[in-house]
Each structure stands twice: as structure tokens, then as C-alpha cells.
Amino acid sequence: MSIKKLLVLPGDGIGPEVMREVARVAAWLSRRRDITFDISEDLVGGASLAEYGVPIREEVIQKAREADAVLFGSVGDPKWAHVGFDKRPEVAILKLRQELGLFANLRPAKVFDALADASTLKPEIVRGLDIMIVRETVGGIYFGEPRGIETLRDGERRGINTEVYTTREIERVARVAFDLARKRQNSVCSVEKCNVMESGLLWKEVVTDLHAREYADVTLSHMLADNCAMQLVRNPRQFDVIVTGNLFGDILSDLASMLTGSLGMLPSATLGAVHSDGRRPALYEPIHGSAPDIAGRGIANPIAQILSFGMLLRYSFGMQTEADMIESAVSAVLATGLRTADIMSEGMARVGTDVMGEAIVREL
Amino acid sequence: MSIKKLLVLPGDGIGPEVMREVARVAAWLSRRRDITFDISEDLVGGASLAEYGVPIREEVIQKAREADAVLFGSVGDPKWAHVGFDKRPEVAILKLRQELGLFANLRPAKVFDALADASTLKPEIVRGLDIMIVRETVGGIYFGEPRGIETLRDGERRGINTEVYTTREIERVARVAFDLARKRQNSVCSVEKCNVMESGLLWKEVVTDLHAREYADVTLSHMLADNCAMQLVRNPRQFDVIVTGNLFGDILSDLASMLTGSLGMLPSATLGAVHSDGRRPALYEPIHGSAPDIAGRGIANPIAQILSFGMLLRYSFGMQTEADMIESAVSAVLATGLRTADIMSEGMARVGTDVMGEAIVREL
Ligand SMILES: CC(C)[C@H](C(=O)O)[C@@H](O)C(=O)O
Ligand SMILES: CC(C)[C@H](C(=O)O)[C@@H](O)C(=O)O
After folding, report:
1. Rounded to the nearest whole angstrom, what is the distance from the C-alpha of residue B226 to the centroid of ligand 1?
2. Taking every pair of C-alpha atoms in chain B, what is the biggest distance, in angstroms?
3. Prediction pTM value
4. Pick from B85, B196, B202: which is nearest to A149 by CB?
5. pLDDT tens, B87-101?
6. Which residues bind substrate (chains A, B) (predicted)?
7. Which one from B77, B95, B142, B342 is the annotated catalytic residue?
8. Residues B131 and B19 in one domain
9. Does residue B217 sit in the same domain as residue B311?
10. How many Å separate Cα A114 from the centre of its chain?
11. Which of B229, B262, B295 is the last residue before a domain boundary?
12. First to last CA, chain A
């Protein structure tokens, strides 16, 4: 009987609601399968600001370090819009990524058969779409120094941020992408802006070298970030794995998710390096945000959070069977016609968060 | 009779081919209307590299300064991919923007009625789409210092670029956006990434202040760049004018153009500040690139280049009537069913570059 330490951080908005549905799935697994989750829960984001005056406590980061995996909800609340740059709810996720060294964000953009028509793109363009974006998440312009706002002599001001990427940072995230590609369609597209940025030039060179040295069996292509945004709209199925930096990844992965027409369905994983004791820090979160506009109304789609838990089982605990079971249960429920408001379409049955969660557990 | 000095820079790939069709339109205008174009032509990009070993000569920049307007084709050629960062063809356009102070790139993303079905998006999502993206083009991470690749002690390397925006740079481009909005749907969406970048924080603050001081009659909203990419796919018609920095603008404007499904149709203008003598430096170019794969085959779509010339007449020479004539002629030709390969669809008549150009002149 294995015991797994899980830190659950529901965060703001719909976070706590959708997390409750994960609890059902976890409880079911504990009952039926040989596994016990030692779950501890804590506050982050606006919820933590309200209680402790900071978006995340040192103590929570320490707990995250000690956990076998972190399941994250979402942070962000308009109430805290004017709280100052260092105290904004988003700091919670940014700090977790950096303090735990979670450098590789895996974001699948997948079209579920039952929902091919939910996209704003024509069904013949997106049917069967299955892209995996690997985004670097502890480097680049998000964290580079110098940064800040300075006042110049004449009262004018200057905002500064620095994009920095080192050989080592590029190589380790590219490795994750190549390894994933080998289990998929064996093709990686590396995205930068090497025609205007030297950091992009280095990015391209390092990926090219690593490929030649260790991954020559994988098909590698290179694309400029602006072109990639276009190609994702023109013909998204040309992509298998995309690997890119923090800022481009932020934009392109959100774009790719929206192509599927069902943002409320998409999970993500963010992985760190494997430590000497074999443990690998990892955080799982839905791609959607805290959706304050629908929070507390019991209508949020819990599927992305449940599938994030599925990714957690797959990547952190090696529980392929259980992860597959969850994915199949989600597909089965969709096939019966149940829909939350965000994916509702004609002829389907509209249900709330809890009915959707229950239905998924029933299909397990 | 007015004489206008025009510098024509066809550049690489399909640039020279589509520029020939503009020459027809200009010739027609000279014959029929009270205007003479004093046209001088020169090499840029790969074409200039081949002839002079540099992507653009100082002399050409000087000519551009003295011209009433610059009509640019496109630069970029895989042949010059390994020529080194300072000599790449793209330097031609980057230098022109910076040396002439062309800080505001106006990029319309417009769906032509006759081509609503050319988009990969569903027609009901894009029909009537008409967005104007105003992109800052002489600042931000494209030009900020320090930049470069440095070697660290242990042989590791580091690529660095710096995003910098000053109050003054933000204000002047926001002004262009607000002024344009007043002539359109009176709404501006300002896009940055203020939740992770201080330069974005300053951007948002400066735009907000300027709005309160001078443009309170215009509707202003703010959006994060990742969300903007999503919203452009989810519901692009929510936007009127979008104003953003150099890097986000590069990606989002390409994305927006691709939504229309007819990249080969879209022109752009890049404007500088009005000088004390009343002159305003300006450069016009199609949104599409040099398309080396189809260059020299006579099948490129000349419409974006012709419409860029139309924008030139409108913005640099105040020739609204003539600009309208060109736009109407393009619509009329599309209505007759003529199509170049890139916008071809069933039941239409496929024609080459020159037949399309001639047809447009005939409709003038
Ligand atoms: C919340 C925010 C800081 C974050 C980011 O920009 O990385 C989010 O957009 C994401 O993609 O996870
Ligand atoms: C050619 C290149 C340097 C340029 C840019 O990135 O600005 C192009 O993509 C554009 O959008 O005009």
C-alpha cells in the first residue's frame, strides 16, 4: 500500500469548487485501488492575501517542496488588482515555479471528439488536434534582472525587463520536449524570434546542437514566434510537440488551447529536475484561470482540474492505468451528452459542477 | 499639379513581382489624376546583400529620409540564413524603422466579404471582422540594450535581450491608437503583460493616464497578451483598435491577419512623428513576407502591395478619394470571381499576379 503526499492549493475564484470534484475522484481511487493520498490543503493567491496579507507563505512553499506532488487550482482576483506588483495573487504560482525549479510546463491542446464543434475554427481544421506545448517556466523575461521602473532626470520613467536564457536552461527544457516527442509523433518544433533577439539565436543553436548530438531520430523544425501564431491558426495539426521560452510559451499555449474550443477541459503539468534521491518536483494545474465572473455559482467545468489530477497520477506516480481510467471516464461522460455551461451545445444536457464530477466518478 | 517623391524598395522573393502591379496602378493615377510620382527604386534585404554585401546601404536610408513616403516590399531569403546576426536581410526593415523613427505600425485585419469563407475560423465568427492593430515599432525588446550572447566562466553561454519602454514612447503610440479609434468604433484595447513585467505595468499606467487626460471619450480596456491571443480566436469582433508593444504586436498582428484567411490581402503602414516642417516619415508594406517558395512563378497575390500603396495615398498624401478608389477596385475584382492561388476557392477563376493587377487597374 503506497502513501502519496499531495499538497492541494485551490486558490481563487472557481479553484475551490472544481477542486472539490477532484476530491471525489481521489476518494474513489483510495477506496478501489491500492493507494492512499495524504492530502494537505492550503491557501494561495487572493485567498492567502485575505488571510495572511501575502500571496503565498514561505511555509506553503516548504510544504510544496516536501510533497510528492502539488495540485494547484488557479489564482487571480480583480479585488487584488491594486495591491502592488510584489503582492499580486500571481506571485503564488510564479514563486512556486521558481522555488521548486519547475522549469518545464507541459500544456496539451487536444480536441475531444465529442467537442470538435466547440471550436471557433472549422471542424475540419481542428478535428483530432493533439499538440503538446513545452514551455520553459523559470527563466526568460519573467525572472531576468535588471527589472523595474526607474525615474529619469526629467520626470520621465522607464520600465525595464530582461530576457535571459543560458545554454543549460535551454538544453534541459529541450530535452523534455524531445523525450516527449519520442512517445508521440516524434516531431519537435522549436520556437523563438532569432531574427530580432540574440537570446532566440542562442535558443535555436542550442536546440539544434542537442538534437544533432542526442536526438537525431526526432524530426526537428524551427519557427519564428510570429509565424507560429499564424500557423497555429492556419493549420494547427502540423504540430506535434512545440518547445519555446516562457513568454512565447505563455501566449502560444493559450492560443493553442483556445483552438480546441474547450479551455475548461485542458490540464497542465509543470515539472522540475529529477533530484538525486529520485524525486521530481511537479505541479499540476488547469489551463483556465480563476474565472471570478462565474465563481460560487456551481457552474464551472471541473474537467480540467480532474484531468490535471490525472496527469499527476501519470507523471508523478507512474499510475498509467489510473490516469487512463480518468481520461476514459471523461470521454464516456461527454459521450452521454452531459455538458457544463462552457461547453454546452444544442441537444446536450446542461449540468453543474457537482453533477459533472459525480458522473465522472460513476464512469470510473 | 503635385509631385510626390516615392522610394520603392521591392526587396526579396515575391517583392519585385507584386511591386510591378503597383507600378501599373501608379501609372494609371498619374495619367488620370492630377499627380506625378517621382519614383526612385533601390535594393534592400537579400537583394542588397547580393549586390553590396549589406542588407541596406546608408545611402538608401538617406533616400528614405528625403522621400515623401517609402513603399516597401518584403525582405528575407533562406539563402542568407547563415549570414550572421548583423547582416541578415531583416536588418533592412529594422533599420528603416529606427532611423526614420517609424514608431507606429498600423496593421488592419479585415475580412473581405467575398472571402469570409477563406478563414480557418467559422464564417459566423469572422464575418465583418475589422480590427486595427497599432504596434510600437522602434522600442521594446527589439532594440533595448544590453543585448547579445556572452560566454560565462565554465564555457556556458547566455543570450540577453532587454525590453525597455519609456513614458514618452508609450504615450506617443497610444495617442496614434486613440486618434484612430475616434475615426472608427471609438474603442481601444491596450495589451501588455503587467502581471509579470514592470515594463507592462508602466505601459498600462501611461495609457490609463493619457486616456483620462485627453481621450476620456474613447472606450479603453486593458488585456494581458496571453488572454488577447485567446480572445482573438474566441471572439475577434470584440476588438476595434488594439495598441501594444513591439514584440506582442509582432505576434498578435500576425495572428489577427491569419484570422482573416487572406494574408495576401493585407497592407500596413508605419508612421513616424510629424516633423516641424509638417512632413511625416512613413513606410508602407504588405503584411505577408517574401514567400521564397513561390517567388518568380507569377502566382503571388499583388493585392496587399496594392492596398499598401492605397494606404500610402491615404495617410501620406491625404488622397482619400484615390485610396477609396483602389479599395473599391479590389472589392469589385474579387466580386467578379478572380482569385490568385492563395485565396482560390471552388467556382472561382484562378489567375496570376499580372492578370490580377490588370483587372484592378481596369476597375479603377
Ligand atoms: C498567472 C500568470 C502569472 C501565468 C503566466 O503568465 O505564466 C499564467 O498566465 C500561466 O500561463 O500560467
Ligand atoms: C522581418 C521581421 C524583423 C519583422 C518583425 O519582427 O518586426 C516582421 O516579422 C514584421 O512583423 O514586420
Report:
1. 8
2. 69
3. 0.96
4. B202
5. 999 999 999 999 999
6. 97, 107, 135, 226
7. B142
8. no
9. no
10. 22
11. B262
12. 20
